[in-house]
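[agent] plan:
  1. take the single chain provided in the ticket
  2. run structure prediction with default settings
  3. attach C-alpha cells to the ticket
  4. add a short note for the reviewer (M.T.)
[agent] executing step 1
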Amino acid sequence: MLSVNQPHPALGVLVQCRPGFETDAAQELLTESRRLAGRIDTRNNSGFVYLALDVPAPHDEIRRRLDISRLIFARQAFQVLAIIDDLPERDRLTPLKQAIQSFGERFSALLLETPDTNDGKEQSGFLKRFGPLLQESLNQAGLLRPDTPHLPRLHLFLVGSRQAWIGISLPSESSPWPMGIPRLRMPKEAPSRSTLKLAEAILTLLTPAEQQATLRAGLQAVDLGASPGGWSWQLASRGLRVTAIDNGPLAPSALATGLITHQRADGFTWRPKKPVEWMVCDMVEQPSRIAPLMAEWIASGRCRHTIFNLKLPMKRRHEEVERCRALIDQRLRPAGIKYTLRIKHLYHDREEVTCYLTRR
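[agent] step 2 finished; step 3 output follows
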C-alpha cells in the first residue's frame, strides 16, 4: 500500500455530461487542458468524456494545469485513479476496496455514480443496494472521514456491470451531488417546471454565503419574459418582490403569492424606474441578443445580479457560449467594470446554458 505522503498519481480526468453533449464537453475539456499531454476519449450519447493522460500525474499538477470548476458542460468531474474492467459478478466489494486502499488516501465522502443514460439507470439500482455495503467497509477500514470536509471525495462511477472508474475530487472543484444532479422536488404551487431550473441555478452558481446575502426577503427583482411565472414564483418563494415582465399571462398560482406584479411589456425595451437587486431572464431568443442585454443591465446599474439562460444552437454550442462571453466582456471591460461570470449546463437545462453575472 502507498503511504499517505505519496498519493497515487491520476491517470486522467473524467467528465460527466448530458447525453448528446459529449462533443461540446470534449471540445471544452480539450481547450482547457492544453497544458496537459493526453488524448480525449468519448462516445456519442455515452454521458461522459475522458481525458487520458500520456503519463500519470500528481493531483496538484493536474489542478495547476486544469481548473475543472471552470468547465461549463461538465455536470460532474473527477481525477481518475483506477479503471477496473473485469469486476466479478459475485464479489465486487473485494476488488474495489483493495483498489481504494492502494491509493493511500482518506476521503470525506463517497459519491456513487453512473452515466445519465438508460444503461446507467440499470446500474443505479445495483448501487442503491451495493453502496451502503461499500461505505460500511470503507468506514471500518478508516478510509471515510465525513467529519473532515477538507479531504478529497471518492467517486465510484459504474459503466455497465463489469467496469468501474474510481477517482477523487475536491469539494471546491466539482458538484456536491452524485452525477452532478441535485434532487429537487417540484413544488405543487409552482406554475411550471422551469422553477426547478432557477432553483438549481441558485444552488449551483451561487455560494451559500452569496445566497444568504443577495436573496433576502423584501429585495426587489425583475423577471424578463416571465410567463407563465415559474422563475418569478421561485424568487417570490424566497420572499423577494418581483416585477414580472411579459406580454403573455401569468399563472394564478404566481399571482397568488402576493409578491409578484405583472406588467405586460417587451422584455427587451422595458426598464425599471429604480435599480433592483436581481434581474432574471429565460426569454426564448438568440443568445447574441440576450448576452448584450444582460451586460447592459449590469453596466447601467439597473440590477446588481442577474441569472439568465442562453438558448444554444444544435451545433457549435461551445463556440456560441464563448461568443456570448466575449459580447458581455466587450460591454463591461471598456467601462472599467469588474465582474464575475459563471456559466453552467445544468441538469434541468436542455439546449441552453444558465449564467450568473454580477459586479465584483
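[agent] step 4 note for reviewer: Residues 118-140 form the longest helix (23 residues).
[agent] ticket updated
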